[in-house]
Task: structure prediction
Amino acid sequence: MRGSQAALEYPAKGKKMIEGLRQEAMAAVYRMRTFSLCREVWGSAISDITRDMTDPKAIYDLGSKLAEVFALTGSAGRDQSSLSGGGAAWEGLICWYLNTVLTDTRAVVMKQSKALVPNVVSNAMTITYKNVRTNTESDLTGIVLPRNQELINGIYERDRFNELISQNLRLTSVHSIQCKTNWNDNAQIPMLWDMVYQFRDVKSHSVKIGVDGVDLDDFADFTYSFVTVPTGKKVVKPNSMQVHRVHSLSGGNYWGRPSQNGVAESIPEIFKRVFKHAFDLDVRTHIKNLVDNGRIRGLTP
Result:
């Protein structure tokens, strides 16, 4: 096993709290089969685009080229239509990009799973409908931690992390991010979930948000975002139905292309809109500092 992949698969013991969790989140991405199949092709392209991850501007702008990078696996003999996990691969690529830029901040993004997302966060997002519990269909969960030295600099332990989050709910932000390759077929899913979450103040005997004594109102902020490639040849216009379905999402609508007015924002815009409180400096200066300090790396070892 080589380089960065080997490093990511070791436990995060001894790491500082937030970076320990990030290491676990990234390791989960690297273990994804479809992500591994595409990683070498994507990594080479990303290295070319970003001058081997040494150009801060290119690293920021990379988000607007991720649709282009994602499509390269087709020319490498791995057509996305033949990959049953193509959507999972896109999810992994987005998780990698967001965490790469968020390195050394108070924010981390992870796959939506019991093994990664703190219990208190999952409980707050759980919806109970007629006494049946269900959780969000979002693919990724982002957390922005408060300026708490133990959460940032303490030694990472999963149980302790959940406890500290529970003690700092009012200062913690949570962000659900749904990642889909096909926009047209999936736009109504984030629309409906965000609708339920946004109208949580509407009293209903059938629908309840949160279990085990916590709900979304306990956090400083909560948003729901949609991130798409998108695949397909159909031209998306401001009056397209899929645009109408996601144009008012609390966390925004993004795609792996340059921003198009009235249609979608480029993925890098999510740092300012959703994760702005995670940065002590502006995001571009933050990326430059990561590069200068050797704290950023590409997909290939």
